[in-house]
Amino acid sequence: MTIVLEPSDAAGGSGDPLTAGLNPQQKEAVEYRGQSLLIVAGAGSGKTSVLTRRIAGLLATREAWPSQILAITFTNKAAAEMRERVAHLVGQAGEGMWISTFHSACVRILRREAEQFGFTKSFTIYDSADSRALLKRILKELDADQLGLTVSMASGKISKLKNELSDVESYSRQINMNDPQEVMFLEIFRQYTRELQRANAFDFDDLIAQTVYLFRAFPHVAAQYQRRFRHILVDEYQDTNHAQYSLIRELTRPVQADLVDELERGGQFVQSMRDGSGGIPGASLTVVGDSDQSIYAFRGADIRNIVEFERDFPNSKVILLEQNYRSTQNILDAANAVISNNFDRQAKNLFTTVGAGSKIVGFTGYTGHDEAQFVADEIAALHESGTDYKDMAVFYRTNSQTRALEEIFIRSAIPYRVLGGTKFYERAEIKDAMAYLITVANPADPLALRRIMNVPKRGIGPATETAMQRWADTNEAPLRDAMRNADQLGLGPKVTGAITSLAKLLDDVQATAATAPVHEILSALIAGSGLVEVLRASRDPQDEARAENIDELVAVTKEFQKNNPDGTLLDFLTEVTLVAAADDLDDTSGTVSLMTLHTAKGLEYEAVFLTGVEEDLLPHRMSASEPGGPSEERRLFYVGITRARQRLFLSLAMTRAQFGEVNVAMPSRYLQEIPVELIDWKQSPGMANSRGGTQPRALNARREGGDGNRGATPRASGGYGSGSYDRATAAAKTKPKTEWANRVTGTVRDNGDMELEAGDRISHVDFGEGRVMAVTGIGARRIAEVLFDGAGRKKLLIKVAPIEKI
DNA sequence: ATAATAGTTCTTTTT
DNA sequence: GAACTATTAT
Predict the structure, then answer these.
(1) Strand C nucleotides with an atom less than 7 Å from a protein beta carbon
(2) Which of A85, A222, A292, A621 sits in a 20 to 30 Å window from A323, CA-based?
């Protein structure tokens, strides 16, 4: 993403390149010097530019060394972009700054200081799935479901407590000991905490909370960082939670004279930093945010942090950026109208000088697929008229909405990529391979060890595992030792052999881990365990895809080693765990981006499709019961709208398939908040409802699809046995549109080498009959341009489109 | 110990 | 529709 700053009327050709082209408010935000500064930056107001120029200014004037700057961003991607843009402005002078996310910065600090409080620097990080797995074990052991406790309740509550900086001790003091459920939860919390400590692991929330704990418990440690960071800048401040807020508070605290003396004795340079009392004054703090874009309350983000900033940090300067350099006035009018329905907000009105622009386009489909087809058609049309695919994005509220979109996009030969969602690293086989790496990096972690114990199958079942656990408990030794001493467990010779050889493999690889490159460690583990070998030998076609995924992981480690020649296994594991959905964005060349509204924050596109604008989806059903839920959902909608530069499309469906069943959907309440004259409805909710004169293409399609005629011709021409052909055909008859649900194996339908040329007549599941106008592309990417009798012109990917020659 | 089958429950958003 | 659980049969 790039934010282009238009020269404003007020700012003229001042000589300073850092403020050239800025409006007066932006200029002030770059140049203001003081203890604390709040920049209230409306969507598209050029805040990234302001922030980078502010940093560049500090460096260029020698007010700060790079090492004295700490900038916190929301994603690693944003951090990388900021670093790049600062480098662009000041060149080499920017090296040594800390620009990272809260989590990455805390990992960096914790790795250095872990030994201060009972961890080693090789700690691992548990992602949400890992901590859920751990909680699951604990709940089962305690029979907690008897009291109605679930894993998601427990993990949600623990996360919330940690975000509030509560630990087991402080929580135990505030509960009602007569409520067995609360007592049970406390026990779960206690065991969870103990297990993490034993495993030498932190969960996501710990990374922040434990850093705060570290600073509070060890003032001399905190003093080092307070001395070091003189300028702290925080982006997306409205999304900070209490723990993150506290971290900032700790970092900006002044250092008392006696601690400065201690630093000095430790060899740190402090002389010119001391103030009158001999201490070091607190770092200067700049925060940037927009309370209208606060969308992470569910994760503990506290909007009060930004609203009450002036109270928290007295004598703060506040600068308001309201001029928008991104969107057309029509889009901004819609955004302003929507957000003004949130009553408890500070007044703010975005404006632009670029003009009204096109109207917002609205569309109501009969089904989610119909809606997706609309999106695909509009994208094709935009592409034809010169908009690059990479400048278009499709947003949705829930990840499950991708299914229909992907299916239609594949058929329509629209190149796309999904950001976030079921990520590469969440796949079971990747988690398996990663667990091998974790056991080598952090032998204390029993969770990872359990995961790989019987993967691939070695005949080590639950019974064997409990036997080992029992040995470990009685000998007060880690699980790994139980494996090394498998012969003492009194198990069968086959199992014993399997255990000892796994233990040997892990020990052998571990011995090389300090020096060997990451990809060699991984390859050794894969070769030694037979992980890929077993998958390759399987008849299940999905296993082949899984094997390829693991190969891909090896490639990733090679790439990592190339980019970080000194990178250790721990560095690799950390990086992988902390990547965010939007971090994946890098080479989006030539593809449409699909993502949730949450990952869309901070990005911008020429054309934006906001899909599923329905009640129970946006606002989401779950938000209704939460305090502040509907307002937060409205902000989410607002965030989506304001991502668009030129074109905005709002779409919804009359019916939506959710968890198997088809439900009737109602238009979102937020649609009515947009002035009618701003929207040009291609098919309004009313029109779709009446099923009257407008072309009911989806209904046509249904009838066509159900006539049973299509099943007569084989469409799987190669690679599949007759059994799978039958199944595919049967499935196609009843539910033709769910064929692509399985993305592990790629596309199930395969027209193979179907020959088509201009003039042929074909029949399509959705669009009925039509005539081929042209065929372009080669091989698997052959595309047919078809003029359908009822549905107009479409482009189809021949290989996978549900079509037949007639 | 494992593979296959049938039944269950749920899904918001994410570092 | 998927992911997990419980119950079978091998």
Answers:
(1) 1-2, 5
(2) A85
